[in-house]
């Protein structure tokens, strides 16, 4: 795992911790819990998509470097 991957993993963990702190009490409306879960899920999913995009960019760079003609 590279530094970007580690950063995305740390960001995902921070979303979980913030969600734990933000979790509504039983007296609050149910939609608060739904909103917290949805926000956490979308945030972590977004970081996952960004990491997959980063991985694809790295593969494209390596593929282009392999296909480059040798310098003379």
Number of helices: 2
Largest sheet, strands/sense/barrel: none
Structural class: mainly alpha
The dominant shape is rod-shaped
Low-confidence stretches: none
Overall pLDDT: 92
What is the chain-wise order of helices and strands?
HH
Total beta strands: 0
What does this 3D model show about the protein?
Keywords: Membrane, Transmembrane, Transmembrane helix. It is a single chain. With 72 residues, the protein is mainly α. It is built from 2 helices and no strands. It has helices at residues 3-22, 30-66. The two termini are 35 Å apart.
Summarize the structure.
By secondary structure, the chain is mainly alpha-helical. The protein has helices spanning 3-22, 30-66.
Summarize the topology.
Elements: H1 3-22, H2 30-66
Helix pairs in contact: 1-2
Keywords: Membrane, Transmembrane, Transmembrane helix
Transmembrane segments: 7-25, 31-53
Keywords, separated by commas or semicolons:
2 helices, mainly alpha, 72 residues, membrane, transmembrane helix, rod-shaped
């Amino acid at each position: 795992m590279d530094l970007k991957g580690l950063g995305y993993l740390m960001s995902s963990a921070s979303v979980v911790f913030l969600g734990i702190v933000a979790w509504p009490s039983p007296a609050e409306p149910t939609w608060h819990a739904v909103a917290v879960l949805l926000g956490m899920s979308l945030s972590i999913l977004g970081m996952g998509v960004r990491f997959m995009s980063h991985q694809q960019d790295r593969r494209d760079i390596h593929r282009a470097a392999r296909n480059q003609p040798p310098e003379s």
